[in-house]
Amino acid sequence: MPHRKSFKHIAAVVGGVIIIVIVALGARYGLSGRMAAPDHSIYVVQHADLTEAVQATGQVTATQNVDLAFQGSGRLARVAAGVGDRVRTGQVLAALDSSDLSVSLRTAQTNVESAKVALAQLMKPAENLTQLQAQDALEQAQQAQRKTEADLRQANLDAFTATGNAFVDLPVVMSDLHTVLQMDTLAPDQQANIDYYANAVSSYDPQVSRYRDDAARAYASAQSSYDQTFAKYKVVSRTADPAQYEALLNATYAADTAIDTAVDSASNLLNTYDHLLVSNDRAVPALVKSYEATLNVDAGKTSAHQAKLYAAQQALKNLRDALVNANQAVSERQAAVDKIASGAEPLDIQAQQLRIRQAEDAVAAVQTQIAKTVITAPFDGIITRQDGKVGQTVIPGVPLISLIADGRYQAETYVSEADVAKIAAGKPAQITLDAYGNAAPFAAHVVAVDPAATVQNGVNVYKVTLQFDGADDRIKEGMTANISVQAAFRQDVVAVPARAIITSGSDHFVLVVGANPQPVQRMIETGITGIDGLVEVTTGLSAGDKIVPFGGASQ
Questions:
Q1: Angle between helices 286-342 and 242-279 in degrees, nearest 10
Q2: Terminal CA-CA length for the chain
Q3: DSSP secondary-structure letter at 25?
Q4: What are phi and psi of 3, to 5 degrees?
Q5: Rounded to 5 degrees, what are φ and ψ at 456?
Q6: In this structure, are strands 401-405 and 409-416 parallel, antiparallel, or unpaired?
Q7: Could you give the CA distance from residue 334 to residue 404 in angstroms, rounded to a whole number?
Q8: How far is the CA of 545 from the CAs of 499, 510, 522, 542, in angstroms?
Q9: Which residues pair with 511 in a beta bridge?
Q10: Cβ neighbours for 223, distance < 8 A, ≥ 6 positions apart
Q11: How far is residue 14's CA from residue 6's CA, in Å, rounded to a whole number?
Q12: Where are the extended beta strands (E) located within 80-120?
């Protein structure tokens, strides 16, 4: 027999910690140099399919369960289902004696019919001539209504035209204001005109700065209002709806008013500047006089457009009021036609209609009382409790019957913070029940993970609910469920036994056997851990590598 090598001690320093791994290495060769028997202490790295799972223990519960009670009191007259019976949604399970209520219901229904007959007697047709006259008056009111609607549509178009005309002049006025106030045409030092006016005569009257500030604020307000309104104007066409027309009209009127104010403020500044120069025997520059003339023209334009825009606003308002009146006239003429057709006063009809509604409400009230005398199944299921006995007096709200969903069960469990991140709704799972052992697994899937933690024994855990994938008569409520939720799956990956991995801090190593019999430590990166004890190796090993399959330690 060839000699076998003795155990060797392999020392590896990882992260400052000496890891002593005693590895039983079978001799690859005997003393004679011949190949020895296969060494089973060497593991050949292979590809494998890995499934990572979260394991937990829980309990089977019904998907739906409910305790049923009567809403009213009375004598139990009927028990229609017993424990273990399968029932359908809406099926009557128990009923109280409702004979008195049935009489009350028939009386209430009779009252409804009587009230309807009385209403029919009120609504008798009138003579033909009276009907024709009322119908003619209605048609005239409708014609007036249509004409007012047409006038209102035209007024909207006229408002749009007035807005368009305003925007022929307003850009010019804004340009003039910019030149008069913001350009530097009067001072050689690139000083804005608005500042030049005030600075040139401030020694005569310091109050001139107030006119400058007023003009600056008015110009800024006018520019903002103009820009916003012009943006609206560009996107509104003649095919726009009336509301857009009116909104644009109102915005244009406001912008024109702001521009008119800016023109006035600029004119006041230039007039003050002009007056102070003349009062102090200084000549007024010809360009300033030209600006004053321009502003006078612009003031006339903005005032004219202001008047036209205001007139358009008033026309729309008047026509809207007229349309309200026209609509009211149509309603009144229609009411007159209806009154003639009904042959009764509207108040009489309304009073009788009210009586009908009251009688119908009485019917509904009795029906509500009758409904409280019956317990029906809210869903398909199996009766698990039935405490009622015919003839007994029941108390409202005290459960007599319990029902669970038929054939649909779920399992509930709690998992730790570390595991809850691996579980999500829809994840597949397998469940075994203690009653049947591991040989009878049931397919299931996660349906809910509670977002809030529950504290159990001072530890945060999260409730997970799983649904069995199919109905099975073997599943019973309250059974202990051993749950395995598939957290991840890797197909055809490099995998090694967990016991072969040496861990130090966050680093992982394996002992690789090569040409030299003494194994060499190699760092690896790992992925998931399968339920079969294999660990995914993402980097550091390839299929066919040989490693020592035992002796892994954590430092």
A1: 150
A2: 39
A3: P
A4: -75, 145
A5: -125, 120
A6: unpaired
A7: 59
A8: 16, 11, 11, 6
A9: 521
A10: 174
A11: 25
A12: 86-87, 92-96
Angle at 351 between CA 350 and CA 355, to 5 degrees: 115
Q: Do residues 183 and 193 lie in contact, with contact meaning Cβ atoms separated by under 8 Å?
A: yes
Are the C-beta atoms of 496 and 537 separated by less than 8 Å? yes
pLDDT tens digits in sequence order for the chain, 555 residues long: 333 333 233 333 233 322 323 233 333 323 233 333 344 478 899 899 888 888 899 988 877 778 889 887 888 888 888 887 888 888 898 888 888 888 898 999 999 899 888 877 777 666 677 778 888 998 999 999 999 989 988 888 888 898 999 999 999 999 999 999 999 998 777 889 999 999 999 999 999 999 999 999 999 999 999 999 999 998 888 788 888 888 999 999 999 999 999 999 999 999 999 999 999 999 999 999 999 999 999 999 999 999 999 999 999 999 889 999 999 999 999 888 877 776 667 787 889 889 999 999 999 998 888 888 898 888 787 888 888 888 888 888 888 888 877 667 888 999 888 888 889 888 899 899 988 988 889 989 998 899 888 888 888 898 999 988 878 888 888 889 999 888 788 899 999 998 989 998 989 999 999 877 788 899 999 988 888 889 999 998 888 888 988 755 444
Tokens 């109905």 locate to: 471
Report phi then psi at 4, rounded to 5: -105, 145
Supply 547's token pair: 């490693």
Beta bridge partner(s), residue 524: 508
d(CA 471, CA 400): 27
Residues in a beta bridge with 491: none
Whole-Å CA distances, 345 to 145, 192, 408: 26, 78, 62
Tally of helices (H runs) and strands (E runs) in the chain: 8, 23
Helix (H, G, I), strand (E, B) or coil at 473: coil
Rounded to whole angstroms, the Cα distance separating 129 from 106 reads 44
Residue 8 corresponds to which tokens in the numbers above?
Answer: 């060797």
Cβ-proximal residues to 293 (8 Å cutoff; 6+ apart), any chain: none
Question: At residue 154, what is the residue type?
Answer: Q
Structure tokens belonging to residue 132: 């024709």
Beta strand 74-79 pairing with 374-376: unpaired
Contact status, residue 268 vs residue 214, Cβ threshold 8 Å: yes
How many Cα atoms sit within 13 Å of 94 on the Cβ side? 29
Maximum CA pair distance of the chain?
135
Token output for 36 = 């020895």
Structure tokens at 121: 């007697």
| Cβ–Cβ under 8 Å, residues 388 and 401 | yes
Q: How far apart are the C-alpha atoms of 273 and 294, rounded to whole Å?
A: 16
| The two three-digit tokens of residue 224, written as one number | 């903002």
